Amino acid sequence: MSLSVKHLLGIRDLQRSDIETIFQTADSFKDVLQRPIKKVPTLRDTTIVNVFFENSTRTRISFELAEKRLGADVVNFSASGSSVSKGETLIDTVNNILAMKVDMVVMRHSATGAPHFLSKHIDVPILNAGDGINEHPTQALLDAFSIREKLGSVEGKKVAIVGDIMHSRVALSNIYCLKKLGAEVTVVGPPTLIPKYLANALGVNVTYNLREALEWCDVANVLRIQLERLKMPLFSSLREYSLVYGINKQLLDSLHKEVVIMHPGPINRGVELSSDAADSKQSIILQQVENGVAVRMAALYLLSGKTPNITVTGN
Ligand code: CP
């Protein structure tokens, strides 16, 4: 099994068969992660560097766990405290790391296109862990994998993506991924946070009415308001946003069916999701996080070019 791409830069570049291959491989790794010894030697002779130029909790820990559970040697790099603060360029930074015989790079960067730029200058596989407002491919893969796990398949399912679509790399990667897998997608949020091109360019439905979207969908993937990326006020206040687009348990209970609630994290509790909705039985937020490790193991393994070896040792 292999992928049609050398790097995982975005879902836009993947074939549906690539996504299905990642899911089948993640199924096997998820089995491994249920065992007492949650480790395989698949990437035992592989060194992976996690290069994070932007903050992260889930993605960074999830990649590191995935790498360690595959038996890889792992090096972590943060821009803060590095020679980036002395003016070193991205290519110099990464080439210096690669000179120490690193085999794969996982990178998060606040600049859209940073991993694509890097892929033109280095030979080893790069996995994009989020680039600016562009893509966050492993998040979309783990989201779709979680829908498949919860509802049996993604094909034909109705998914509402709620909130700050404009600034969200999670939204764009999710739209590409869900559409490739045959889901119907509606984006919902304030008009100022939904790009005008979206419906025509990406084939999604657009609505500004949260209740209408929730009555329609099987799954609501609720996004964080990306306050750090707002260059100007695009809604009057967080309080008003929460009143119009926030999801709470009372709203969920008033619908005529049960909607699965997802969120990529970190959650602004009380803004896009109330605690009683985020922590409800309808929420699969922590299952998303759990699935992230298996999905990232699959992506790392498939891009590594190693021969199949998903057997557990010492168990
Ligand atoms: N979902 C996600 O990317 O979270 P982090 O920013 O914590 O990695």
TrEMBL record:
Keywords: Pyrimidine biosynthesis, Transferase. Pathway: Pyrimidine metabolism; UMP biosynthesis via de novo pathway; (S)-dihydroorotate from bicarbonate: step 2/3. InterPro entries: Asp/Orn_carbamoyltranf_P-bd, Asp/Orn_carbamoylTrfase, Asp/Orn_carbamoylTrfase_sf, Asp_carbamoyltransf, Asp_carbamoyltransf_Asp/Orn-bd. One of its GO terms (molecular function) is amino acid binding. Residues 6-149 form the Aspartate/ornithine carbamoyltransferase carbamoyl-P binding domain. Its EC number is 2.1.3.2. Carbamoyl phosphate binds at residues 58-59, 108, 136, 139, 265-266. One of its GO terms (biological process) is 'de novo' pyrimidine nucleobase biosynthetic process. Residues 155-303 form the Aspartate/ornithine carbamoyltransferase Asp/Orn-binding domain. It catalyses: carbamoyl phosphate + L-aspartate = N-carbamoyl-L-aspartate + phosphate + H(+). It is an enzyme of class 2 (transferase). L-aspartate binds at residues 86, 169, 224. PROSITE patterns: CARBAMOYLTRANSFERASE. Pfam families: OTCace, OTCace_N. GO terms for cellular component: cytosol. SUPFAM superfamilies: Aspartate/ornithine carbamoyltransferase (SSF53671). Heterododecamer (2C3:3R2) of six catalytic PyrB chains organized as two trimers (C3), and six regulatory PyrI chains organized as three dimers (R2). Belongs to the aspartate/ornithine carbamoyltransferase superfamily. ATCase family. HAMAP family: Asp_carb_tr. Catalyzes the condensation of carbamoyl phosphate and aspartate to form carbamoyl aspartate and inorganic phosphate, the committed step in the de novo pyrimidine nucleotide biosynthesis pathway. This is Aspartate carbamoyltransferase. It comes from Chitinophaga skermanii.
